[in-house]
Design goal:
Blueprint lengths: L7 E4 L2 E4 L8 H7 L10 H19 L5 E5 L9 H15 L3 E4 L5 H12 L3 E6 L13 E5 L2 H10 L4 E3 L4 H15 L8 E4 L1 H15 L7 H4 L2 E4 L2 H12 L1
Parallel strand pairs: 3-4, 3-7, 4-5, 5-6, 7-8, 8-9
Antiparallel strand pairs: 1-2
Helix pairs in contact: 3-4, 3-9
Length: about 240
C-alpha cells in the first residue's frame, strides 16, 4: 500500500521521508535540462556502447548460415595475384554454400567480397572505426561498422566455420593468432585455418618449427592447426571436407 502522507515520497520501490525526499521527480530531471555531457565519455557509458555493438552484430548475423572469414592486406592491389586468388577462393566457397566474411575494406578484402557477391552469395563486411576512415568496399552486401576491435573479432570467429588467411600485415597477423590461441585453448573447435601463399607464410611456419617448438613454447599439434597451400581448390577443400 502506498504511503500517502505528505512527508513521504515513493521512488520506484523505495520510500523516502523527511530529509530524504527529493526536490523533483526522475522524469523532471530527465526532461528539464540537458545537463553535463561528460558522462558520455565514462566507462559505464562505454559498457552500454559495447553491449549495443554486440547486440547489433548478433542480430545482423544470427541467420547468416555457414560462413568463412577471409583475411588479407588492405594494400593488396588489383593487379596483385593475391587479389585474384582471394576473389576465386570466395567464389568457390560461395559455390559450396558458404557466405564470405571480410573486414570490409579495400585490397584482399574487397577481392573476397567481390568474388562472393559476383557469385550471388552473401558478402559480409565487418568494418572498424579507424583514424583514417576507409569505408566499406562496394562489394559488401551486408555491412556492419564497429567501434571496438574485440567486438568485431568476436563476430569473425563466432559466425565463421574457419579462416582463409592471405598475405597481410599486423591486422591479418592479429586475426590469425587470435584464432590460433582460441583453437589451442579449445575455446573453438573444428576450425580450419588456411594460410594461402607458401612464399609469404613459409618463413613463419619455419620459425614456429625451428624456434618456438624446440624451445617448448608450443607443441607439434599446435603447428598442425595451420594448413599451408598455394592451391585455391585445396584451400576450399579444407572446409568442404570438414562438413562432409
Amino acid at each position: 500500500m502506498t504511503d500517502s502522507r505528505p512527508d513521504s515520497h515513493q521512488k520506484g520501490p523505495v520510500r523516502l521521508k523527511r530529509g530524504q525526499r527529493p526536490d523533483s521527480t526522475t522524469d523532471q530531471r530527465l526532461l528539464d535540462s540537458r545537463g553535463p555531457a561528460d558522462w558520455v565519455h565514462t566507462d559505464p557509458w562505454r559498457v552500454l556502447r559495447i553491449q549495443a555493438e554486440f547486440i547489433e552484430g548478433f542480430g545482423a548475423l544470427a541467420e547468416l548460415g555457414p560462413a568463412v572469414s577471409i583475411f588479407g592486406s588492405a594494400r593488396t592491389k588489383p593487379d596483385d595475384p593475391m587479389y585474384d586468388a582471394a576473389r576465386q577462393i570466395a567464389a568457390k566457397l560461395c559455390h559450396e554454400g558458404y557466405a564470405v566474411i571480410t573486414g570490409g575494406g579495400p585490397g584482399a578484402m574487397e577481392a573476397a567480397n567481390r568474388g562472393a557477391s559476383e557469385c550471388g552469395g552473401v558478402s559480409v563486411g565487418l568494418g572498424i572505426e579507424l583514424p583514417h576512415e576507409q569505408g566499406m568496399n562496394e562489394w559488401v552486401d551486408l555491412g556492419i561498422n564497429f567501434r571496438y576491435f574485440f567486438v568485431r573479432k568476436t563476430m569473425f570467429v563466432k559466425y565463421a566455420q574457419g579462416y582463409v588467411v592471405l598475405p597481410g600485415g599486423f591486422g591479418t597477423m592479429d586475426e590469425l593468432f587470435e584464432a590460433l590461441t582460441l583453437a589451442q585453448t579449445q575455446k573453438i573447435t573444428s576450425f580450419p585455418i588456411v594460410l594461402f601463399g607458401t612464399a609469404y607464410w613459409g618463413g613463419l611456419i619455419d620459425w614456429l618449427r625451428s624456434t618456438m617448438l624446440p624451445d617448448g613454447k608450443i607443441g607439434e599439434k599446435d603447428i598442425d592447426m595451420l594448413r599451408l597451400t598455394d592451391d585455391i581448390d585445396e584451400a576450399v577443400a579444407w572446409f568442404v571436407a570438414k562438413d562432409s
